Amino acid sequence: MAEQQLGLIADVGGTNIRLELVDMASGERRELRKYLCANYPTIVDAIKQYLSDAGQPAVTHGCIAIACPTNDDWIAMTNHSWAFSVKETQAALGWTALHLINDYTAISMSLPHLKAGQKVQIGGGEVKDGAPIAVFGPGTGLGVAHLANHAGFWMSLPGEGGHVDFAPIDEVDEHILAFLSKKYDHVSVEQLLSGPGIVQMYQAIADMKGEEAKFTDAADISTAGIDGTCPVASATMVQFCKVMGSFGGNLSLTLGTFGGVYIAGGIVPRFIDYLKQSDFRERFEAKGRFRGFNEKVPVFVVTEPQPGLVGAAAYLMQTV
């Protein structure tokens, strides 16, 4: 492979598109830029603007991580107006190859490449090289994926794990389930482990304690809960960490993730020290006869600000 062969990687959300160049020989990334999607009629327009701003580099390959299904040639964004054909986009850009992957596929692909400064470990356990990995990310929703290694190649196993049934463990969990069951026919884990989920947990615990639910914003609840200025918010954050632990432990058991369980998303990196002191790890390991199994599995919070770009680069280099 020629040393100068360049790839373009992008991470596209409903608001912004982040783009970067990657040297496909060395893996070196450079020229990170961010653009508002709304400022460009099509994704091709945004990419061409980036290439112009970056000095018209000779790109041959591309990998775009995008927050929508990527199973077909036609890509239609869930939270933005961009819709396009992968083949037509590749032709318009004149590239040798263009790959579209789901945003959580990209995040999962980043995990084996994260260094110590890009993640923080929660509790014990050691990574077993090449072993399966799990990732989940409380944010607007709850993204979930697994990663498996075959003959030195990493394969992302995406799914809809955030929509599995919520399984209560203690009395507080049981009250939350009963409270949310009045609202939903099916109470998924995402209804608790997400920004909206924090609000719903807070409302359920306020109901349990006979208190008024004063907050309506997840950030306000987490702030008041962690600094101890609101007892209901504090109880909410205690329970949020417990539910995360139970759910993460379930992911570990499902695929034997001795490569680690990773927590991504925009919520948890804001309170890593609090998470370390919480009951997260106890719930993660509290699996009866299989406590010893999960005790060996390490857990990390992803602190890398651009895991989607790291993963898109990893995906692209692996396919060339």
TrEMBL record:
E.C. number: 2.7.1.2
Catalysed conversion reaction: D-glucose + ATP = D-glucose 6-phosphate + ADP + H(+)
Pfam families: Glucokinase (PF02685)
InterPro entries: ATPase_NBD, Bacterial_glucokinase, Glucokinase
Keyword flag Aminoacyl-tRNA synthetase: no
Binding sites annotated in the UniProt record for ATP: 10-15
UniProt keyword list: ATP-binding, Cytoplasm, Glycolysis, Kinase, Nucleotide-binding, Transferase
Subcellular location: Cytoplasm
MF terms in GO: glucokinase activity
Family membership: Belongs to the bacterial glucokinase family.
UniProt protein name: Glucokinase
Organism for this UniProt entry: Corallincola platygyrae
